[in-house]
Amino acid sequence: AQSVTQLDSQVPVFEEAPVELRCNYSSSVSVYLFWYVQYPNQGLQLLLKYLSGSTLVKGINGFEAEFNKSQTSFHLRKPSVHISDTAEYFCAVSDWQGAQKLVFGQGTRLTINP
Amino acid sequence: EAGVAQSPRYKIIEKRQSVAFWCNPISGHATLYWYQQILGQGPKLLIQFQNNGVVDDSQLPKDRFSAERLKGVDSTLKIQPAKLEDSAVYLCASSSGGAGGVEQYFGPGTRLTVT
């Protein structure tokens, strides 16, 4: 079974500042890793995913994440945030086999202050 | 391409009543998922369909929740009778299935309040 821990429930930052949202996972098998974003009153939208290959993954809206197998982490970063990035961010894992269901972390609320 | 459609968007019911949610996935998507998202938590998978068949319903409270996917397209999730702890957003998602790591596309969700 897999589990995901998002280390910060809330992250406030100023506009144009860099941000890192932290995610650690636990699994006894190899996994795929995802970051989803949820804007208010909307469903989840995929930001980026890691399947294999380069450990640095680039996604939409200027976000990127780095897979670190030894530390079982998949932290999300953006060098300069905008007001429009205010949202809830979810890290998720699925295993390579079986039904490949997504197991989500509890989410990190990113608040951008002007 | 139309996204995943869900209805209703909001529903308020009293405990012990029944409720049903409807989902229309992206055309051609073989895999359909229902998630429960309780306030302050990440989504939790309730049930996964591959075409008409159930792939995973291990976290579905089968004494009160049921789901079906007729003809491998639309799906309905029902709760009967509802409890206070069922208050949550119910998200439907679909994917093309096939190889692992495929993206799941989410609908806007149905916000259920049980009073």
Secondary structure elements and pairings:
The complex is a heterodimer of chains A (114) and B (115).
Chain A: E1 3-6, E2 10-14, E3 19-21, E4 23-26, E5 31-38, E6 44-50, E7 56-58, E8 64-68, E9 73-78, E10 87-95, E11 103-104, E12 108-113
Parallel strand pairs in A: 2-12
Antiparallel strand pairs in A: 1-4, 3-9, 5-6, 5-10, 7-8, 8-9, 10-11, 10-12
Chain B: E1 5-7, E2 10-13, E3 19-24, E4 31-37, E5 44-50, E6 53-56, E7 65-68, E8 75-79, E9 88-95, E10 105-106, E11 110-114
Parallel strand pairs in B: 2-11
Antiparallel strand pairs in B: 1-3, 3-8, 4-5, 4-9, 5-6, 7-8, 9-10, 9-11
Q: How is this structure best described in words?
A:
- The complex is a heterodimer of chains A (114) and B (115).
- In chain A, a hairpin with a 7-residue loop joins strand 10 (87-95) and strand 11 (103-104).
- In chain A, 0% of the residues lie in helices and 54% in strands.
- Chain A has strands spanning 3-6, 10-14, 19-21, 23-26, 31-38, 44-50, 56-58, 64-68, 73-78, 87-95, 103-104, 108-113.
- Chain A has 114 residues and is mainly beta.
- Chain A is globular.
- In chain A, strands 2, 5, 6, 10, 11 and 12 form a 6-stranded mixed sheet that branches. A 4-stranded antiparallel sheet of chain A has the order 3-9-8-7, with no helix packed on it.
- Chain B has strands at 5-7, 10-13, 19-24, 31-37, 44-50, 53-56, 65-68, 75-79, 88-95, 105-106, 110-114.
- Chain B is mainly beta.
- In chain B, 0% of the residues lie in helices and 48% in strands.
- Chain A binds chain B through residues 4, 32, 36, 41-46, 49, 51, 90, 92, 94, 96-97, 99-107, and chain B through 4, 33, 40-45, 48, 55-56, 91, 93, 100-104, 106-109.
